[in-house]
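Example A, followed by Example B.
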Amino acid sequence: MNHTSDLIIAGGGASGVMAALEARRAGFSGSITLLEKEEQPLRKLLASGNGRCNLANLSPLEGRYRSDDLSLVRSVLGDYPAPLILERFAQLGLLTVEEREGRVYPRSFQARSVALSLLRALDRADIRLLYPIRVLAIKAGPEGFELSASDGALWQARALIAACGSPASPDLGGTADGYRLLESLGHRLHEAVPSQVPLTLAAHPLTRYAQGVRFRGHAAFRASDGTLTESQGEYLFTPYGLSGIAAMELGAAVGRSAGKGGKPGTLTLDFLPEFSKGRIQSVLEASWTGHDDWQLLLAGLVADKIGRGLLAALPSLENLSKEEAAGILAGKLKACQMEVTGTRGFRFAYVAAGGIAAAGFDPATLMSRTQQGLFACGELLDVDGDTGGFNLLWAFSSGCLAGRAAASYLRGLQA
């Protein structure tokens, strides 16, 4: 069976839905079809922010993104900054609220509110959303594109927006399909690794004694090639290693290092970054009476289970002077080294680092530099951001730009 649509968007996630809506908003009156492979559209969005959907961030963007073409990222987010994206949602009837660190959520604090607003808007804009239909292959021709679908149908389109996402979170629909499809059309793939993903560590007393303990601190990952990546914020000890927002921000660096073979590198934890080693040592010395258990004294500085794990990682302090023991403990609190063995992989990753080379697309339109009528947006491209709403902001902003540009391209064909 053959079908036609002026514009087809492969992928019914955050970026694909936003692209469809913006194409219609830009005045394109032709047919628009979204093909989504999952049995439920917007699955990743529904799970984002632990179901609360941190949909944008109003903080300055400098240093918040990684890409093979940061100028493209700046261009896209300059055209569709966070306030404009929030205005788009307001026009859909969705109220939002800003919380700490510039994070923006739906006022209901329910991701479902965002999904329902977007799906309702698709219906009102006469945009077809068909699922579950997987795009298996794409052929480019002089009249546009031919897509082979999983239901056996062939689709013809004059313009195509690839919004297929990445392999991250396969349980929520993550897939490498988009990489394969765009590579078949001549685009280059930068190897993707899990990003925003928990780290796995070699066996250490802290992962034994401090399981389930959260702490705020600083971490520095030294890769096997000497590259240093740092993060600061909240961490969580687990049986397998380290989780928490700040730990997950190191995931891409660990993944890239692990991909080079050998041991990925070493993690150095600072449990008390706001205090110097000297200050910590003086506190320990002042509170020790000669009869106290060091673990009890550490409980005034860090969680009791962390203190227990740190002491278990050290030789006995019994025969040391107060100054010597306090110095060793202060040093361990400021620089506890642990061997990193890898990450928990794409299954536990929120996003991917790497992807289809962003440099292969025009920053003003997100149209392919080599294939007229082909656009790409969202996580499919080699763009990933920090936690806190930056990745969803990229999805919405790049989707809007691709949709607007595709509408302009199709109007040009009609002229």
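Example B, a separate protein, is given below in the same form.
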Amino acid sequence: MKTYRPLPVSFARGIGAWLEDNTGKRYLDAISGIAVCSLGHANPEIAEALADQAATLIHTSNLYQIGLQQQLGNRLTQIAGMDRVFFGNSGAEANEAAIKLARLYGHGKGIANPTIIVTENSFHGRTMATLSATGNPKIQTGFEPLVSGFSRVPYNDVAAIEARIAEDKNIVAVLVEPVQGEGGVNIPGNDYLKTIRELCDKNDLLMMLDEIQTGICRTGRWFGFEHENAQSDCRPDVMTLAKSLGNGVPIGACLARGKAAEVMQPGTHGSTYGGNPLACRAAITVLDIMERDNMAARAAALGESLLADFNSALSGIEGVSNIRGKGLMIGIELDRPCADLVGIALEQGLLINVTADKVIRLLPPIIMTDDEARQLVDTLSALIKNFLG
């Protein structure tokens, strides 16, 4: 089906931060398969683990105990400070599980029409429930009637959340992204999550974080909420993960703790493929590498360096509205639509992305070297200057 508009290139192989097309031309990958391949392409440790697991056991289903799933669940809950986890196959499925969990939680409290507060410019997936939660009318058009049970407020506006809680007794949860990726790399105020945590505690609501893009070291911490966690406990009740968790192998996770951890019971949710041995082996290997090589610190340092270099290279350039980022989520906002830059960069052997119409979004692999980062800055800065004329 014509659901995509693919660029005129097909990749045959990859290594590290580079991809090679079927003519042999190389491209520096600054989007990592949309924040997925944080450990690079053709990572040898992951390839070895997958080959070994494929030759041993790929799938049994959740009718039976899965040792690798239990091992991965133990690792994730320990790292995140959570209690339980449900495994699916994608970020949308992880968010779908979180939405179902919130509704069950609400019904358990006697609320007939449980409602989740979500935000403008958010992105949570393309299933019917997750696109209904998403704050982008473009992806909702044509799919009405949308799923009910969502109440939208502006992003980075805790006063709006507080007011909505006060006026609607059906609110059971608040679902936000620590940094909005698809929405334009929007970074909230320093106490945004802390205040949401306080409001949820005060009103017996679930704080739910979509960490599908921010999670697994991308922002310079294991999880995006940890940037505020030093000041107070900003751990969510529910957190969703995907993307970098499998480094390209499809896997999603919905983690829960405390009162949210026991809401799901046998028969309330499930997945045929979710958490199968192959996907779990890949994710365990990802966690091993991230932990051993302190990839969170590397993402923080590389992101800081890239921001400084872009600010220096584009300083005073008319048409550059803002340069922002957290770790290796970087947005360069222009004063005009710039989707054409994607194709121009492709011709120069650089893979970038434009979101929210005029924000160049960069999601480089964490294993990108300093020399590759300099090449990214030099190439993209020149393209932006030429584009702005």
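On Example B: The CA atoms of residues 61 and 273 lie 6 Å apart.
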